[in-house]
Design a protein that fits this description.
The chain is of the alpha+beta class and 707 residues long. Helix content is 28%, strand content 39%. The strands form five sheets. The protein has a 16-stranded antiparallel beta barrel. A five-stranded antiparallel beta sheet has the order 3-2-5-6-8, with no helix packed on it.
């Protein structure tokens, strides 16, 4: 990834915000055309193709939404494709050319800036492998015999269709069918029909030429009446055609002129330029010293009018001029700072409401709010979040101890910040989690370094957490356990191609302290009964066969965890595929694999949908037992030193199936709403009380972004 593109894109956003009205269709056409012209005559002409690409990419930002017409956007993509082709990136060149043809099928690369490679790639995209199918009148031709006066029945059919379209006022279709008829057979009446339709759609210059050609062709078939009418009509149109006179500007050099996007020779200055009635745009670019100057004016011409246009050249806007003169990524960044010293803050706020419920009578409701503030050029950001967990439970292990359904609330505030120092990004975070019987305080940091033009980003992080576990309604001074966790995270992000991103991450966690649940009682069985206890034995049967002793859970007080994960994302033309794999093991003997994937599809502008699937499988802890044995002796029963009733420590598998949707809206898609929903099926392979669990998770999120 070229670092200049990031800065250029950010710069384009700021320039766009200051230079164009938010909802003006085609408001950026002039700026984008000038940007393309000056890049072609500047960096491109000097062979600095990478620099040219960085600057031309800014045009995409200028053309967001409807700020550019399709014709201008096609010219932008043609320029991008041309530069990619000169850089040897055929794949990206084809993508850009395809985008250009989608916006304007008639668009072509500029011949003076193209070579054989550029033209070959463009023709490959334009040709594709698609058959050329008949269109218009030729698609509806039924294959009848040619009527009198015509050699081609298909030509006569197309002329008849053109006449019908003329009568119904569909002049563009009339023009297309009349031209199709003339391609098949030269007939003066067909050319006259073409002339009438061109005249009706205010294309007087073209109409006059067709009338003149009709006057030459008609006598060959002895149609002298049509010849006289055509000659008279052509003369009348020539007399009434409006003209423009562009006055010569003073004290300028390197002047270029355009009328409706078509270059005009300098010799046309001061001369009468015939033009069709209607709207026309005159653009001029020049220099006074080294200062670039510009002129743009749109006029409406009435018949029989001669309109003088005085060119008054003025400097480019400071923002655009800074972009065009920038030679390095640092210079582009400086442009942004000078142009908008306070306009580079990106503020995002959001709220989410999520919920979970399952067949084991566990319900969780979690409202949350969050915000982030990022400075695009200074490279710093802060974030904050606050969530509340409301948990209600009456699961099987709770009922097994004759405990009532309980509810508790957890509060979790969190803060984070990061700052960039060149290619190094340093991030810090801290959070607090408070429940009636549990308190957790954590903090950490991470350092990431961007290498090889931001295509390789290794990172290293360290986290520390100190938890205090107690009993409800009991002060920590009376009963509590301290748990300490140290986590080390190492990873690397990889930009594999311009459409593919991958990452590899390693996490090591060292945990010291007693994490046993103070409310979880573990059933014990005699050596004779334990082997007979089946998986999923119900509560009443467990209570019938268990021993009367009810010891609390006790797990090891030291645990070391290690996880390795791989993830990849690939962007297709209108969709994205994401997949990840996580492998896990710890010193308690648990080994697990988690595979996750989703396919995000851009349905229409602003709307994305995705299916989601996940599969998880794990072994049980080394001390896991479906039925713990407590042998009797003269001193009493021998309670196992390590014991647990935590289902998540037993052998199990789980499958998740769901999906989501996101819709971005607003003038610049600055608002977004999303919904995700997943069904989670868990299968417990060697557990008491239950064999399976079916849960549902859903979340509704709303976000807003401000610059």
């Amino acid at each position: 990834m070229n670092c200049g593109l990031v800065l250029a894109s950010a710069l384009g956003c700021a320039v766009l915000a200051m230079a164009t009205p938010a909802n003006a269709a085609g408001a950026s056409d002039g700026d984008v055309r000038q940007l393309i012209d000056l890049i072609y005559s500047g960096e491109y002409a000097q062979g600095k193709f990478k620099e040219a690409l960085e600057k031309v990419e800014i045009g995409k930002i200028f053309c967001e939404g409807e700020l550019c017409t399709k014709k201008v956007r096609a010219q932008l993509f043609l320029a991008i494709g041309t530069i990619h082709a000169r850089l040897g990136d055929a794949a990206q060149a084809k993508i850009a050319f395809a985008s250009a043809l989608k916006d304007d099928p008639a668009s072509l690369p500029r011949g003076e800036h193209s070579n054989e490679v550029v033209l070959a790639l463009f023709e490959e995209v334009k040709g594709g492998a698609r058959p050329v199918l008949p269109e218009g009148c030729r698609a509806s031709f039924g294959g009848n015999a040619a009527p009198r006066g015509w050699s081609s029945a298909e030509a006569q059919h197309c002329h008849a269709e053109a006449v019908l379209h003329e009568k119904s006022g569909e002049f563009s279709r009339c023009e297309a069918d009349a031209r199709a008829a003339l391609e098949l057979e030269e007939q003066a009446v067909a050319r006259a029909t073409l002339a009438r339709c061109l005249e009706a759609s205010n294309n007087w210059l073209e109409a006059a030429s067709e009338w003149e050609e009709t006057a030459r062709q008609a006598p060959r078939t002895r149609n002298f009446t049509l010849a006289r009418h055509a000659q008279s009509r052509a003369a009348q149109l020539r007399r009434r055609t409006p003209v423009i006179v562009i006055e010569i500007p003073k004290d300028t050099t390197d002047l270029t002129l355009q009328l409706d996007g078509v270059a005009l020779p300098i010799e046309m200055l001061g001369q009468e330029i015939p033009a069709n009635p209607g709207e026309h745009t005159v653009i001029a670019n020049s220099k006074r010293g080294n200062l670039p100057l510009r002129f743009k004016r749109t006029v409406v011409l009435e018949p029989s009018v001669t309109l003088p246009i005085a060119i008054e050249l003025t400097p480019f806007s400071p923002e655009v001029r800074c972009v065009l003169e920038a030679q390095t990524a640092d210079a582009l960044s400086k442009c942004l700072r000078q142009a908008s010293p306070t306009g580079n803050l990106d503020i995002r706020v959001g709220t989410e409401l999520s919920g979970y419920t399952d067949t084991m009578d566990v319900d969780v409701l979690t409202p949350s709010v969050f915000t982030t503030i990022e400075h695009a050029t200074d490279g710093w950001g802060v974030n904050a979040a606050f969530l509340v967990d409301v948990v209600t439970a009456a699961s099987a292990d709770i009922l097994a101890t004759a405990s009532p359904r309980w509810r508790e609330v957890r509060y979790v505030p969190a803060l984070g910040a990061h700052a960039r120092f060149g290619d190094v990004d340093v991030a810090l975070n801290t959070s607090l989690s408070q429940e009636p019987d549990y308190l957790s305080v954590s903090g950490g940091g991470k350092v990431a370094v961007e290498l090889r033009q931001k295509t390789v980003t290794p990172s290293l992080g360290l986290d520390y957490a100190r938890d205090t576990s107690g009993r409800r309604y009991t002060p920590y001074s009376v009963f509590s356990h301290t748990i300490e966790r140290i986590g080390i995270n190492a990873g690397v992000g990889l930009v594999l191609t311009k459409a593919t991103f991958g990452s590899l991450n390693f996490t090591a966690l060292i945990e010291d302290g007693d994490t046993s649940k103070p409310y979880r009682y573990v059933p014990l069985f005699s050596p004779e009964v334990a082997p007979l206890v089946p998986a999923g034995l119900e509560i009443d049967s467990v209570n019938l066969f268990r021993l009367p002793e009810r010891p609390l859970e006790q797990v090891p007080t030291h645990r070391e965890r290690l996880a390795m994960s791989f993830s990849a994302a690939h962007r297709f033309a209108s969709s994205t595929l994401r997949a990840s794999e996580r492998l896990y093991l710890d010193t308690w003997g648990v080994k697990a694999s988690t595979t996750d994937g989703r396919y995000i599809v851009d349905v229409v502008k602003g709307l994305r949908l995705w299916p989601h699937a996940r599969f998880h499988v794990q072994t049980g802890a080394s001390f896991w037992e479906r039925a713990y044995v407590a042998p009797a002796s003269a001193e009493g029963i021998a309670i196992p030193a390590v014991r647990t009733g935590d289902r998540e420590l037993g052998p199990m598998l789980a499958a998740t199936v769901g999906g989501g949707a996101r819709y971005d809206f607003g003038a610049h898609s600055q608002y977004g709403a999303s919904f995700t929903g997943d069904f989670v099926y868990s299968r417990f392979l060697d557990h008491l009380y239950v064999k399976s669990r079916l849960g549902y998770f859903g979340a509704l999120t709303f976000e807003a972004e401000f610059e």
